Amino acid sequence: MIFMGLLTIVDVLAKIIASIGVLIAAFSYYRQVRIKHAEWLNSLFEKFFENQCYKEVRGWLDYDELDQKLKTQNDNIKRENEEKFTDFLNFFEFIGVLYFRKELNLEEVNNVFDYYLLKIKNDINCQEWINKYGFEKLRNLIAKI
Prior knowledge:
Elements lengths: L1 H49 L4 H8 L3 H5 L4 H26 L5 H17 L1 H10 L2 H8 L2
């Protein structure tokens, strides 16, 4: 009888310890996922703001030069500028893909990229380009801003 009671106590303790272990593992996993997510968001930030790839186009938007850059008379320069601008919009199309796949939420997108998303949203040349070349995810993303 005492032996059965002891087995019941051991069984209950084992279940409690196992449950605590599962909770600790779940918490640890959630924490690791959040850390990886933050690192990933940081890499997007670095790619956009610290890498020179998009710096020139950012300047075009900052200083209202986009129209001039896309409509220059020199065909070679025009083509080069169009490619740079398309790469810039492709970056934001990718951000839109991540948002709609729920890899990023709107708060995260706004915290990092709101200034340029608003610039894109409010610039007529950007809107024409987005509509002409089918940047669907970007169009849907800026509609939410």
